[in-house]
Amino acid sequence: MNGSLFNLDSHCRVIRVFPTKKRPDVFQAILEIDRLAYETVMKRGGLVVGYDHCVVYDALEECTRFRSGQNPSLLDLILISNPDLATNLNYLPPVGKSDHVLLEFNIQVAISISPKKTSVTKTFLDFDKLNHLLSSVDWENELSSDSLDDNWLKFRNMLLIWQIKCSVSKTYITNPSKPWLNPKIFALIGQKKSLWQKFRRSLSIEDYESHRKLSNTLSKQIKLAKKGYEERIVNSDNPKSLFKFVRRVLAIEAKEFRLKRADDTLTTSDYETANLFAHTFSHIYNHTLSQSKLPDHEVTPGRIITDVSFDRESILRKLQTIKPTACPGPDNISPSILRNCSHPLSFPLSLLMEQSFHSSTLPCDWRTAYITPIHKSGNRLKANNYRPISLTSSVVKIMESIIVDRLDSFTSEFAIIPKEQYGFTKGKSVETNLLSCLNDWSSLVDLGKSVDVVYLDFAKAFDKVPINLLITKLKTHGISGRLLAWITHFLSDRKFSVKVNGVLSDFFDVLSGVPQGSVLGPKLFLLYTADIPGLFLSPCAMFADDIKLYNDTDNSFTLQEDLNKILCWSESWGLPLNKNKCVVLHIGKKKYWKANSRMYILHQCFTKSNLPLMSKLFKIFVRPVLEFAHPVWFPDRLQDLEVYERVQRFEDMG
What we know:
single chain; alpha+beta; 4 domains; five-stranded antiparallel beta sheet; five-stranded mixed beta sheet; 22 helices; DNA/RNA_pol_sf; RT_dom
């Protein structure tokens, strides 16, 4: 639900509110709103109420009280801090003589299914030993097979076996839901239980006092341990640990990940859930489309690219910039090993990549992706409300990155990517996109004209690109020879599996699209859509698959003709428009509530808040909300600036 702020003072009567003691996830409220206010807030997308520093949403969309001779009104609201908390809302008949409807809904809460204690094994690699082993191999002899698959499997298996030989594992006892509990605290917990049993046997005052004294000591030690754990996370050089901690505290979804089947029953296992996700994602793809009705595209003479070199020095530079904390792909090769063993690995990887490029083949591991579903919006029990995020092999990403560097030079030399494209383009961003458009719109408004802006969005654009039509486009841009053959195989016979709580689904074929999660995919999409700005007479701006088309109202006919052209293009090239995300904005002569809400919730995550802690959290989690594209919208009036600065008053939240 997208809420918008609305002043309800003159339209609303608060009878009573019952918040929870801690973070106000769900309120029970009696709040009566008249029909005028109800219609206004519903037009704006729902009711949003400020409660202290937290913003809460109304989950209701209809009036709840009906009485003869009176206007319907909204009563007994369901107020939630997150729009996804309340699901499956039903308006049932009133009970007895009541004039209030009966509300039935589900609340999604986090359910910890972790055991109280568990053993965690951490593995530490001896990189000096591993580097020595890798340097001692005669790679030219080991990777001499004519089969790339054989060479790749030999390389991968040797690396994984040596990884085990060079590893030292240590096991720790920990509590997954309370990781700050250390062995000292576990010992105190055991002593507390023993003292209690001793008191139960003796019933003496001395034994009871001993138990109470140890209990107080234990409580103090737990608080100190939790505070120390939080401080270590905040001061850690790895921000992922902080993100993971905050996500775990704020998570509303249960570890028991479940989805609705077609018959409205819930899945019963992670494997079934993963397969339901996989089935849903597989239906997104396009099948091969006919090229018979496509417009003619001629290759510009002299504009051609056929080869890419994969020398050891280029691969070494790429390996040294890889993120060591990234997750391994389907090949199980850790990016940490690739970076820390970059010198001995650069040579065998050069041999493998050269063989792959010249033979126009790729190992199966390089064409496989593990997908993690990420919730977008709407009901969390529906699989189509999730976005697939792909994880692919780090090795092939190195190869893709070298190819992209070569394509960047080629497309820049011949100006293939249009200046109207701001996505995945060096030196351009959302800010430069907005500033350019804002300048055009302001100039027209200053001339006394009005502006119509049409926002267009392709439905599942990256997944729906027909592979055969993409190859056709690449040919027209001058990509040919071995490079075109390698890209064709890179896009063909791909497979994916969905991972839920570590459990993999069955493998499904990828029938269309540029691979998401890859390095080469975004570049291929830009090449596929490079001819779009040339269709229009009206000015436009693009950010990947999002198009902004605009003109003054005197040229509305031209704007309509341009819309007709993009509709024809989308049908010809297999990228249908998403009608639900295509909107019109008319321009003539609040993000603060969201930042306030986020700051309040972060305040609730930690045992004790202080200025250095809240300052760091503000910079990581809240400032990006406030300062996103701020050169475009930053306020110049004092009253607006005051609202902006108010978010930073941490002391008000203590």
